[in-house]
Amino acid sequence: MSRPASAAVLTALLLLAGLSGCGGEDATPQTGGGSSAAAGEPIRLGSLAPISGRNSSSGEAMVNAAKLAVAEVNAAGGVLGRQVELVAEDDACDPGTAVTAAQTVVKKDVAAFVGGYCSSAMVPTLKIFHDAGVPMIIALANSTDLLDPGYNSLFLICGTVTAEAEFAVDWMEKLDGTRLSVVHDGTSFPITLADSTAAYARKTGKLKVAGELKLSQGAADYRRTALSIIGSKADIVYYTGYYGEANQLIKDLRGAGFTGKIVVGDGATDGPLLENLTAAESRDVYGTAMLVPEFMPELKGWSERYKAAYGIDPGPSTAESYDAVMVAVEAIKRAGNVDREAIRTALGDTDYSGLSGPMTFNDDGTRKTPKFLLLKADGKELKLVS
């Protein structure tokens, strides 16, 4: 990896040309199998993230990390003698919004895609990028629904829900859980994580599945769900949706008298999960998580660069987003041009050491060595368990 630029240089670069989109003028549409941009123009990387909506804090963190990667690449001379530009659009974690945003990104002649947070928003965009020949490096979304079309142009930075489910069940057994209630919100990632968790628990016999429940996103309360969980005699709950609903579900479970352990998936540990919870409500709340830089001393130098650029510490969703950009840049270097098919082929041969560790991909585009963390609530903060 190139030596990073100074904080002052990075800040200036971030303020200048590291980001386009959200109302910018369209570039020349792509033609054929490769980017049509002239040799002197920047190499564009596309991204979709929830810049608005309930998951906007995660989307903002993703875009910031991607902008930092772009700034550092440009400070080191760019790639193939050209600067890199990030084209970021808001998908709001909404499928319809994501489709429109994807069409906008494709029109801006991107060489590769480096975003993706909510799987439900990503799934309907896959065909759009595939038909345009744009290889996709998906930073955070990890539902196995992403793999269903069988596209060879898709690469996942994070481990799939199958790997996360196995990690979760193994840890819930260690936490002395015996009867498990699994709850999801009816969207792609939460459903596939819930189904994978229940299947692995049954297959291994490590936990008895006491119930599988669905709640509605954005509801005022989940007291009925809480009462169903208590009625099932579950002693541990795994909620696989996002942090807004997780926060309310925790309140309602504790309010209904549930005293067991509550575990949430990575979509809930990335965000204000513990806001407005009392000490009693947050007791014995855990989460399976992707990478959290504050718990990774090996990322100290990078975290300092991020804070110098944005004035805040990097949270969840940042390391993977940064890695997605760097993996794309490395693939473009090895391809030696911006032909999208050449970039796709180079991505398949990736052997890169990123913030999130060694990066190589299986034939289906999944990561060979995914990494997850177990966190535990401690007052208003989440602390590392393993």
From TrEMBL:
Record-linked PANTHER family: LEUCINE-SPECIFIC-BINDING PROTEIN (PTHR30483), PERIPLASMIC BINDING PROTEIN OF ABC TRANSPORTER FOR NATURAL AMINO ACIDS (PTHR30483:SF6)
Signal sequence coordinates: 1-22
Pfam families named among the record's database cross-references: Peripla_BP_6 (PF13458)
Keyword Transmembrane helix: no
Keywords annotated in UniProt: Amino-acid transport, Signal, Transport
InterPro entries attached to this UniProt entry: BCAA_transport, Leu-bd, Leu_Ile_Val-bd, Peripla_BP_I
Name this polypeptide is given: Branched-chain amino acid ABC transporter substrate-binding protein
Gene3D superfamilies: 3.40.50.2300
Organism (species): Actinoplanes sichuanensis
Domain of life: Bacteria
Boundaries of every Leucine-binding protein domain copy: 42-376
Similarity section: Belongs to the leucine-binding protein family.
